[in-house]
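Fold this complex.
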Amino acid sequence: MKYKKMSTYSYNLHVIKTDKFKTVTVKVNFKRKLVKNEITYRNMIINTLCESTLEYPTKRLMTIATENLYDLYYKGMNYISGKYNIMSFDVTFLNEEYTEKGMLDKSIKFLSDIIFKPNIEKNKTKIKFKEENFNLAYNLLKDNIISSKENPDNYSRIRMLENMEPNSFLSYRSCGYLEDLEKLDSLKLYKYYESILNSDIIDIFVIGNVNERHIKKVIEENFSSIKTFKKPSESHFIRPKKVRFIPKTIKEKQKINQSKLVLGYKIDKMTDFELRYVLNVYSYILGGGPDSKLFKTVREKNSLCYYISSVGQPLNSILTISSGINKSDFKKSLTLIKREVYNMKKGKFTDEDIIKAKITYINSLKELEDSPQSLLSLYSGMEYLKSDDIDTRFNMINKVTKEDVIKLSSKIHLDTVYLLEGD
Amino acid sequence: MKKSKLEKLDLDLYEEQLDNGLKIYIIPKENVNGIYATFSTKFGSINNEFMPADGKKMIKVPLGVAHFLEHKMFEQENNNDPFTFYSERGCDANANTSNYKTTYLFSGANSFNENINYLLDYVQSPYFTDENVEKEKGIIEQEIKMYDDEPFFRLYDGIIYNSFIKHPIKYPIAGTVDDVYSITKDDLYTCYNTFYHPSNMFLVITGNVDPKETIELIKINQEDKKFDDFKPIKLKKYDEPNKVEKAIEKVNMDIEIPKIGIGYKIDCSGIDKNINDIKTYLSILLDLKLGSTSTLNELLKAQNLITHDIDITLINTDKHILVILIIETNEIDKVLNKVENELKNIEITEEDFERKKKVRKSNCIYRSDSIYSINNKIMNNIMNYGSVILNDYKKIDDLNIKDMNKIIKKINLNNKTVYIINKS
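Structure:
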């Protein structure tokens, strides 16, 4: 495997050359500082651009085209990365060795057409997305926004964050908001689209068994419409606001069978080493899997739940614990969870626990090389979050000691308890 | 050890059957770090009426036993915990139960020899006590309740329940909360002794392994263990009628967009083909008529009747295929009508048919990059055909529009059930 970063005036091209996969993936990321109402705009851009192109004016024709390209797979996605909002478009297709000559160029052109050749209508001096396509994108996003409540698990996590720090980056919903959507029209959205092409920070990633020179040429040909000048990026990491002295408890009701319990912890000023490595070990021991403290106590010993886990979010300096329980077991579950978190502070875990966490981390690093998607996220993490490369990570994770984990434990404070209460 | 090629996929298959009946399938992949191993018994949620290994007459155990047993395999004597074992080696362990089989699995890049021995050892040493069986009931109750809150699971379960009359595929895999509370330690041992004989099980290993060494290792592991002689398991046969149990049901849930499920129960006994091949033809057909490249899909979206593609799933018994369509819409009657009309006069073009074949062939190659997808393919082949399909490519090439048209003529879409979830 060989990694090369090539810079142009307007974007970075990252090529990961490897003969491990029968596929090639090309991913284009557009990044800018997070602004609440723009989350909705960016989702609309994705839906609209993925709905049609000039050449294929409906989604049906677009999909037929992908099938003729040996089932090329494309998608657009918007996600929040700390202080930044990243919108990405990617295609995955079979290496020409398994299809026919010319497919690589055609597939990359397909991606470039999605981004740069939208189905537009011109009216005198005004340009906008074709109204029919805008409406289809609108209906889809509207349904996605209003149905987010239908997944109680996910919904309870969002509501916990919104209660923990309303109006802060970490509580923003990545699918967007109805009130922002209602203010949009096709003309406004097109203006926003132009601003993306002119001012976002752009990175293009390619992974597969490709010829570097050829890929560079094809990308240059297809991405010449990017007019932006490269700007330096700030850190993505967020420092949380003050921790509450007395944790806030919120209960909301929904007509469901199982109640959802979500606990939000804030973490004080983590060092770089803590947020990249120690937090990982801490969270693995506390609630990382079926061998964790929370799983053993709350599920196995007390039969209170089917699932329980903790997840550290280094970007936002928080840790969340979530589980599904009977409403009547709320107090008991809360007490048991708090005790396990307290035990971590008191150092009530063994060196074996640390070793297990490290081996698991190291194994997942090894398996990371087995899939193009995980390699892409590795390299985008190195670009955006200044994450270490694989070799450095092997070394660093091994340096984590029990004392490090205990020290981090003392920085972790319960802030918000959220219960989505069922029947 | 038999070696064969998986055509066009740059992969080899190694097969071996041990003296105790256990079948082993290995597909090495040297260019990855990971290894994925699955150990399955042909015992699923539908096998609750059978002749036990040590009995003389047919018995019936509570629904949900296969799934309950799967949970309890993770409880071993002397607090030996499989999750801890795999976690100590930085590997993942898990298990799952479907209608037809139960699978125990691990994945990871480390300590393969220890891992595979341990997998065989823990699955082959059941330890069920009254106490540990009792303890599991609350956990499974929460698992069932979690799925009950998911509208899409409710739709699938509702459609399947209302489609079948006698066949136990009707019931949810985990059973109901009441079923779960009625399960005893003895039920688990009866099922274990009947269905967990090596002759009824198979191992599939994909990833960075040496096939010869691995088979030796498994042989040595199995040689030390004693098993009774295997008698073929007598399972109850069900004479499932063609009609559905209930034509329509409406429920309310705390949701934002109403949802419908439509189930078409199709009798395949008059079609001279393996039911899994009929399923392939039907899924191409439905994809063309209702999927993302269909004119109906385009029309429904343009009229804002749907915003997401219609979800199409096919399940089957030995005699019936059940086509399940899941649709989110605020205009239930309009959408139902349009779907009905679309399926009245079915015609498809050769060009469309050939394009879908191309998609299927491409997917074979996509899947061959992942040790998880390859493993699943092998398991599905064994369950559906009794052996591994070595030439998927050719199998797809052989699909033809003539056979498709014959099938279209024979299928009857009149046995239908509709399940509606409205906003409460």
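Chain B has two domains: 2-223, 248-423.
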